[in-house]
Design goal:
CATH superfamily of the largest domain: HUPs
Number of helices: 18
CATH class of the largest domain: Alpha Beta
CATH topology of the largest domain: Rossmann fold
Helix content: 40-55%
Shape: elongated
CATH architecture of the largest domain: 3-Layer(aba) Sandwich
Number of domains: 3
Distance between the termini: 69 Å
């Protein structure tokens, strides 16, 4: 742990050499060069600074407050307590609160149970912490109107990420490591080493908090930091600079490859709608392996939004599926399904919900609803207590007590929070649970037609009538609902 924060006088960036010691001038010049080289900031940006209380984020905050006048920035501090270290985590939050106060900046803080999420999602603690932290930062940026989110990753973090990816097995994309800019995320310290950051903090009497888990070699990244990198530095004392240079070259070459991939992509693409993407299987089968893999990765990313959870083995399986002699085949990948259908390769997201169909008014008589794929025929008739005479031999008919129906009627698809009272059940249940219990496939649940009156769902078309409109001894007239599928 470190001493109590001591505030320092502030000056603008126009008189570096005269006002500040040489180290501060050099560091500010280096960070500003990084910001300008990657176009990280624009005049008038609102920047959310992620501050954990560690030395990297404390120095980042100090530097950005000094650079803010030159870019006319508005700065906001964000801090998240991961609830992983008990009293220490709470002390970190208090420290960052005092730090923001000393700088006169707005602070947005929160705490979230990372361990519970990791158990729920069966994720590692590190992976869960990154996911929770990123979600918090994006939500906070939206709330405060921030245009950029500044993170404290440095050159050592970049080197460690590259080595981590190499150990697991990675291609050029893995060698890229951490991108300096991935909007709205920016990393102004990406060209600065950890040693430079600590030296700067000590020279200028900046206080920070030490996270003891950073020394725990049970974590792979910590073993890389404390064991592997020191051994490699025996071979090359400028290892961090060398790995940063390698990452920059890999990033430039990978970006060039992605740009050259645009033309093959246009050739391969058949159709792309929300949650689905269709590619020409024959084209994929005849391009070079590297281009094929690049096109498949792009397809997965466009359907899912990212490549999280996608490994080399997944891409290998897709390649094998594409070039196989099978006319039909299917494999399941994280969050999506891929299948070949003759000459097409189809990706379908298992997470994305299709856009809801527009609600349609349903009059009495016969009407077609092509977007729902059905035709309805509604008829009001006296109740003669002869169900079979009304249903005949067909199964696509339901009989409701017309006086329990609140006209007019509409046809729609499901919405969040929908509840339904299936025939035979006195109470209601979540519509989602009813569809699951009725074995409606996941891919069809968002397009299942719901016939509704002014109060509720009265019929899940093709499944069951609502108990709320069932016929009983008091029924005098009925609504006969007939439907059929149309193409």
């Amino acid at each position: 742990m470190c001493s109590i924060f001591q505030s320092k006088p502030r000056a603008t960036c126009v008189d570096f050499a005269r006002v500040w010691p040489h180290n501060r001038y050099v560091m500010l010049k280096k960070v500003r060069a990084t910001i300008d080289s990657y176009s990280m900031l624009r005049q008038g940006d609102v920047v959310l600074i992620a501050v954990s209380g560690g030395v990297d984020s404390v120095v980042l905050l100090d530097l950005l407050t000094r650079l803010a006048p030159d870019y006319n920035l508005k700065l906001v501090v964000a801090h998240l307590d991961h609830r992983l270290r008990g009293d220490e985590s709470r002390a970190d939050a208090r420290f960052v609160r005092q730090l923001a106060l000393q700088h006169g900046l707005q602070l947005v803080s929160d705490s979230r149970d990372v361990r519970a999420l990791a158990q729920q999602k069966r994720m590692g603690i590190e992976e869960a912490a990154r996911a929770v932290r990123l979600r918090f930062l994006r939500e906070t940026a939206t709330r405060v109107g921030a245009t950029k989110i500044a993170l404290g990753h440095n050159a050592n973090d970049l080197a460690e990420t590259m080595l981590f990816n190499l150990i697991r097995g990675a291609g050029v994309a893995g060698l890229v490591g951490i991108r300096p800019v991935n909007l709205p995320l920016i990393r102004p310290l990406i060209d600065v080493t950890r040693a430079e950051i600590v030296s700067y903090a000590r020279e200028h009497d900046l206080a920070w908090r030490e996270d003891r888990s950073n020394a725990d070699t049970a974590f792979t990244r910590n073993r890389i930091r404390h064991r592997i990198i020191p051994i490699m530095e025996d071979l090359n004392p400028r290892l961090i600079a060398a790995l940063s240079r390698t990452a920059r070259i890999a990033r430039e070459e990978h970006d060039a490859f992605l740009e050259l991939l645009d033309s093959p992509w246009r050739e391969a693409l058949i159709e792309h709608t929300r949650g689905t993407l269709r590619l020409k299987r024959d084209y994929l089968a005849h391009v070079s392996v590297g281009v094929r893999r690049g096109l498949l990765r792009r397809g997965l990313e466009q359907v899912n939004g990212d490549l999280q959870g996608i490994t080399k083995q997944h891409i290998d399986s897709l390649c094998h599926l594409v070039i196989s002699s099978r006319a039909h085949g299917e494999i399941h990948l994280p969050h999506l399904r891929a299948r070949v259908q003759g000459g097409d390769l189809l990706f379908t997201s298992r997470l994305a919900r299709p856009s809801a169909l527009p609600t349609r008014d349903v009059p009495l008589g016969e009407s077609e609803f092509p977007s729902f794929g059905i035709a309805l025929n509604l008829e009001l008739v006296p109740w003669e207590k002869d169900l079979m005479s009304l249903k005949g031999a067909g199964e696509d008919v339901e009989i409701a007590d017309a006086d329990k129906v609140s006209f007019p009627l509409t046809l729609r698809t499901r919405r969040p929070g929908d509840r339904f009272s299936p025939l035979g059940l006195c109470g209601t249940k979540k519509l989602k649970d009813f569809l699951i219990d009725s074995h409606v496939p996941l891919s069809e649940r968002d397009t299942t037609a719901l016939l509704c009156d002014e109060k509720r769902i009265i019929l899940v078309v093709g499944q069951r009538l609502s108990n709320a409109v069932r016929v009983d001894a008091e029924t005098r007239r009925v609504l006969v609902i007939r439907w059929k599928e149309i193409t």
